[in-house]
Amino acid sequence: MTIYNEKQQEIAEKISPNARISNWKDWKWQLKHSIRDISTFEKVTGIEFEESEMESLEKTIAKFPLSITPYYLSLIDTEDYRNDPFFKQSFPSPSELIIDKYDMKDPLAEDKDSPVPGITHRYPDRVLFHISNICSMYCRHCTRKRKVGDVDSIPGKDEILKGIEYIKNTPAVRDVLLSGGDPFMLSDDYLDWILTELRKIPSVEVIRIGTRMPVVLPYRITDGLVAVLKKHHPLWINTQFNHPRAITDSSKEALRKLADAGIPLGNQSVLLAGVNDCPRIMKKLVHKLVQNRVRPYYLYQCDLSEGLSHFRTPVGKGIEIMESLIGHTSGFAVPTYVIDAPGGGGKIPVTPTYLISWSTNKVVLRNYEGVITTYKEPDSYEPVFCDRNCRDCKLQLKLEEAEEIHAIGIEKLLSDYDDAISLIPESTDRIERRDKLEMEIRS
Ligand code: SF4
């Protein structure tokens, strides 16, 4: 297995003349020698920028920091770097300084939906817990550019404890997503402590971790880290491969270790102009992911974060990609294409249209080949109206402590759960939490 190739050897020697393979595969060595300024980038890659360009590059990294692991740098094709997907994802572009009319610092309103620092509580039963705000590599397309990389606001133990306390006091939360920054920037022991504290909370059923380490620094997935993670099942991990060439022997090894530890793996790609806005690239990517036991989970429309306009594609590009996947390849290799609602409404799935028309007893559909077909609905159907009155229902729910009684959103309108015949967004739980928080801040 090629874990160390000639190009990597060359990069390692340019960074540190005495470097050996053991250094290259040491994640701490990689972090210590990450490329954080343009002149080191030039020295290591042999690429030279014009003086006029240097000025705008310096301005860009003054606003959004630069950090590229030597490993990720080795993926860049220096002969054609301007078109290279890894160069585009890791190297600053002066276009990041362009702020469009619709750009926002915090497009997903994560800070507004934050009842305590570090926690974003948007959906009813799950929270996002920011336990780190640093990463091994700063992705140029990061949606959290506003805070990722800011060493002055790294969450301390006190802040983490407040987040844990909030989760403890909010039993509706059954799913905790650890994110950041990258949670795997924390030490094994510290992560172990956080996971142990969360596991003590009876209402927390699952823990998820969002990390880009298998992509940008696969050597972080050490046997020691895996041993820690294994203790805290059920634990899920989502990563972010955006291009099939990022699935190298080293990242395959990292994925293998995680999958062998019984951790279900998912991938959340971001649709990026000039990187992966191509049906063939995306199909290759999803195939390589499932070969490595990673389920393609989401394909994200690029958010409206400041400085990302050059990465955005029209939504039609995403639909075109989905059209090329659905039916054309295995269902479990097809991600859900989503737009994360600007303003904080959560992920909204977007798909090509397959339901062409319908009448009272028949629907007309089309498939991926263009076949138009009909599905005959039953002439007699004893309606089951789910009014959430499970005790009187003939269907055997019979679940202990079933929490399904509470209905919100469109689900509520469909179920006749209460008298509501329309939805007024101001009355959602989320907005109420926001209002309460704002009132607390004011008082
Ligand atoms: S690893 Fe994630 S949080 Fe960190 S810079 Fe990349 S996209 Fe942002």
Automatic annotation (TrEMBL):
Residues recorded as bearing N6-(pyridoxal phosphate)lysine in the entry: K347
Cofactor: [4Fe-4S] cluster; pyridoxal 5'-phosphate
Residue ranges occupied by any Radical SAM core domain in the UniProt entry: 121-333
One Pfam family this sequence matches: LAM_C
Alphabetic keyword roster: 4Fe-4S, Iron, Iron-sulfur, Isomerase, Metal-binding, Pyridoxal phosphate, S-adenosyl-L-methionine
SUPFAM superfamilies: Radical SAM enzymes
Catalytic activity: L-lysine = (3S)-3,6-diaminohexanoate
Positions of [4Fe-4S] cluster binding: C135, C139, C142
InterPro entries with a match to the protein in the record: Aldolase_TIM, LAM_C_dom, Lys_aminomutase/Glu_NH3_mut, Lysine_aminomutase, rSAM, rSAM_sf
EC number: 5.4.3.2
Name of the top EC class for this enzyme: isomerase
Gene Ontology MF term list: 4 iron, 4 sulfur cluster binding; L-lysine 2,3-aminomutase activity; metal ion binding
Gene3D superfamilies: 6.10.140.1170, 6.20.120.40, Aldolase class I (3.20.20.70)
Record family assignment: Belongs to the radical SAM superfamily. KamA family.
Function summary: Catalyzes the interconversion of L-alpha-lysine and L-beta-lysine. Is involved in the biosynthesis pathway of N6-acetyl-beta-lysine, a compatible solute produced by methanogenic archaea that helps cells to cope with salt stress.
PANTHER family: L-LYSINE 2,3-AMINOMUTASE, LYSINE 2,3-AMINOMUTASE-RELATED
Name this polypeptide is given: L-lysine 2,3-aminomutase
Species for this entry: Candidatus Methanoperedens nitratireducens
Annotated gene: ablA
